[in-house]
Structure formats: structure tokens, C-alpha cells
């Protein structure tokens, strides 16, 4: 049964042709066995019946053309006086077809013809017994019109249903494309976030290790105890960097954020003082001050503030020179947290803080701008009057419970 249904769906014109042949046979028997009508009328009825059967055969391949052929055949019947027979069933079929799959103008034309066909037929072939009974004539016209109207309504309803399902499919496809686009944006944002975290962790800790390694090599012979202390700092910093990288890589491997949050490092403003202490141990003099009244901050602002200070001090060690000093100020305003990190060293080159640098340099500054933009803040970075480098940021504050 399923095979038959599939065959019918694959060969609609063939199925229509089969029914057209059946209709032609029934029409032929009707013409031959008609008790009334002259021989000339019977001969004329044959080509008209053939034309109506062609309408049935090609109705889905060319519905508009077949409608015009059916209308022309019907008018020829009226002019030649060929009475309606079984072949006129094709008029119902083409009306349904045009209403369901044809152009709108063809559908409206078919409806207009439906409303007038029965009346014209009744006028052309009046029944002698009914001529004096107008109510009966009107009743008969209405009864003959109803099948045509029902065929048109059924076809138009099918057209509406198809259009509705087509809109649903289009909407589903559009929503699927939007979901894919949103997923790609989310993946890109997550990759950028992880890249920023990796850069901050690696750049800071590796720069500390490099400074300590250089110092240890310099005092290895003259002060073994100081060199040993530097090596211990390198070991501790390396372990800390590895631990933070494992936590980040754990997120990448599992693909899910653990409920405990142990994989995602979330340093806050309180840890900035600890960060400054570690930087001082590397030999960089840092002045740290807090102004205003500390208050609870959103976690995003906490992390952004910590990373800005971390990156700024890392840049001072990398670009400031051996005798550079730095200062870090945190200022709590009524509606924002201000950060000011300055150094008196040589400062970074113009390309690093403006264009991101060549050959992949300057990504730390790009990361800072992205972080500040995500919390709706502002960042200003550049050379300081009198030498050195300055980074200032203003991060908007909101109540912690919002």
C-alpha cells in the first residue's frame, strides 16, 4: 500500500491521465447511449469531451492553461448546443486544482465561472415543465452551483493550509539559523574569554619567573641564599601557573561549568594587595593605595579590576626597564570604581597599546579593553607626562544584589 502511495506521489500526471482515460470512456458511453440529441450533436460532443479529458490529464502540470481550455470548451458547448454530460465533471476538477495550486487570478476567474455556469446552463437548456416555476428554477440553479463552490472552497482551504505549513517550515528554518548563529557567537565569546584568562595567567606568572631567573643567574656566585630564594619563587610561581591552567583546561575538556566553580579562577579586588606583594618580591617597587570606602562589587567588575592591575604590572616589568617603579590606586566613587596604574619606566611602544602590535604582540592591552567594555566601563592607556606609562579605568558599580 505504501508503495502505491509513493508511486502516486511520484507520478501525478500519470495518475491524472489514467482518470482522464476513465472519464473519456464514461463520456463516450454517455454520448452513444444518449436517448436524445441529433447525430450532429453527438459528433460535436466527442472533441469537446476529449478536450475536457485533456484538462483532467494536464491539470497539475499547467493549471492556468487547462482552466482557460475548460472555459473555452464550456463556451463551445453553449454555442453549439451540446448538452452537459459526464465529461463536464472536469470542470469541477479544474476548479479545485486552480483554487489549490494555481495563480490567484486563475483562482478568482474559476470562482466567477462557478457562480455563473449553472445559471447559463439553465438558460441555454430550459426544462419545459419548469418555465412557469421561477422558484423551482432558482432552486435548481443553486443546487447545481453548490458543488462548484464547494470544490473551489476545498481547493482554496488546501492552498491556505499549504501556505501556513510553508510559513511554519520557514520560521523553523530561520530559528534554527538564528540558534546556530547565536551558538557561534557564544562559542567565539567563550574562546575570547578563555584566551584572555590564559594570557593573563601565563603572561603574569611567566614574567615573574623570567625576572626571578635572571636575578638568580646574576647573584648565583655572589649570594647563593638569594639565588635559592629566587629559585623557590620561580618554583612556586610555576606551580601556581600550572594549577590555574589546569583549571581552565578542565573547563575546555568537560564542556560544562562545575557546580563548585573550582575550574574557573575568579580573583577579586581583595587579592590585588596579594598580587602587589608578589610583584614586589620580584624587585619591582609598587606603591598601593585604596581611597574611598570599599564595598561589595559584581563578580565581573572584581575580576576585571584584578586583571587590569595584573596586566599593567606585567607590562611594567616587561617594558619599564630595570629601575622602574609603579603605583596602583583603587578609588571607590559613589557610582564607580576607578583604577590608576602608573610607572616611571621607559613605557611601551605606541603600537602595543594602539593597534595590538605586530606579530601577535599587545594582546594584553586588547584583552583589557575587551574586559572593560564587557562591564560597561572606560579605559585610557598611553604614555605618561614626564615619562613612563599610565593605565586608568573607570568601572561602573551596581549593588551586589542586582
Summarize this, please?
By secondary structure, the protein is an alpha+beta fold. The chain has helices at residues 2-10, 12-32, 39-57, 63-80, 89-101, 104-124, 134-219, 224-254, 272-281, 299-319, 350-354, 363-374; strands at residues 285-291, 325-332, 336-343, 378-383, 389-396.
Protein traits:
12 helices, alpha+beta, rod-shaped, single chain, Heat Shock Protein 90
How does this structure look, described?
Helix 9 packs parallel to helix 10 (299-319). Among the domains are: 2-125, no CATH class; 267-402, Histidine kinase-like ATPase, C-terminal domain (Heat Shock Protein 90, 2-Layer Sandwich). By secondary structure, the chain is α+β, with helices and mostly antiparallel strands. Strand 1 (285-291), helix 10 (299-319) and strand 2 form a beta-alpha-beta unit. The relative contact order is 0.06. It is rod-shaped, with a radius of gyration of 44 Å. The chain is built from twelve helices and five strands. The protein has a five-stranded mixed sheet.
Amino acid at each position: 500500500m505504501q508503495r502505491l502511495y509513493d508511486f502516486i506521489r511520484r507520478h501525478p500526471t500519470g495518475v491524472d491521465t489514467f482518470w482522464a482515460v476513465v472519464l473519456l470512456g464514461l463520456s463516450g458511453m454517455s454520448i452513444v447511449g444518449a436517448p436524445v440529441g441529433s447525430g450532429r450533436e453527438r459528433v460535436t460532443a466527442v472533441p469537446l469531451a476529449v478536450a475536457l479529458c485533456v484538462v483532467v490529464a494536464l491539470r497539475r502540470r499547467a493549471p492556468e492553461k487547462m482552466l482557460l481550455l475548460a472555459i473555452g470548451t464550456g463556451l463551445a458547448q453553449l454555442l453549439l448546443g451540446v448538452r452537459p454530460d459526464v465529461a463536464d465533471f472536469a470542470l469541477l476538477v479544474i476548479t479545485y486544482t486552480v483554487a489549490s495550486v494555481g495563480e490567484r487570478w486563475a483562482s478568482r476567474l474559476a470562482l466567477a465561472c462557478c457562480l455563473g455556469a449553472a445559471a447559463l446552463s439553465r438558460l441555454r437548456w430550459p426544462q419545459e415543465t419548469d418555465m412557469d416555476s421561477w422558484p423551482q428554477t432558482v432552486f435548481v440553479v443553486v443546487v447545481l452551483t453548490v458543488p462548484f463552490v464547494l470544490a473551489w472552497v476545498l481547493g482554496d482551504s488546501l492552498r491556505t493550509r499549504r501556505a501556513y505549513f510553508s510559513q511554519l517550515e520557514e520560521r523553523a528554518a530561520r530559528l534554527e539559523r538564528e540558534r546556530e548563529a547565536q551558538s557561534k557567537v557564544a562559542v567565539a565569546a567563550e574562546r575570547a574569554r578563555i584566551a584572555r584568562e590564559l594570557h593573563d595567567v601565563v603572561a603574569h606568572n611567566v614574567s615573574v619567573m623570567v625576572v626571578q631567573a635572571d636575578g638568580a643567574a646574576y647573584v648565583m656566585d655572589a649570594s647563593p641564599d638569594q639565588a635559592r630564594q629566587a629559585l623557590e619563587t620561580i618554583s612556586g610561581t610555576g606551580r601556581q601557573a600550572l594549577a590555574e591552567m589546569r583549571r581552565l583546561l578542565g573547563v575546555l575538556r568537560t564542556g560544562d561549568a562545575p557546580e563548585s566553580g573550582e575550574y574557573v579562577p575568579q580573583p577579586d579586588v581583595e587579592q590585588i594587595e596579594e598580587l602587589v606583594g608578589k610583584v614586589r618580591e620580584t624587585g619591582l617597587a609598587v606603591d598601593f593605595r585604596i581611597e574611598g570606602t570599599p564595598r561589595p562589587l559584581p563578580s565581573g567588575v572584581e575580576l576585571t579590576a584584578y586583571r587590569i592591575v595584573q596586566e599593567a604590572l606585567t607590562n611594567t616589568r616587561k617594558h619599564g626597564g630595570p629601575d622602574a617603579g609603579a603605583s596602583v590606586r583603587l578609588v571607590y566613587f559613589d557610582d564607580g570604581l576607578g583604577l590608576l596604574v602608573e610607572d616611571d619606566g621607559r613605557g611601551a611602544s605606541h603600537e602595543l597599546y594602539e593597534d595590538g602590535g605586530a606579530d601577535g604582540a599587545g594582546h594584553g592591552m586588547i584583552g583589557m579593553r575587551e574586559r572593560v567594555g564587557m562591564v560597561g566601563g572606560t579605559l585610557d592607556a598611553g604614555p605618561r607626562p614626564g615619562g613612563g606609562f599610565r593605565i586608568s579605568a573607570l568601572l561602573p558599580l551596581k549593588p551586589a544584589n542586582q
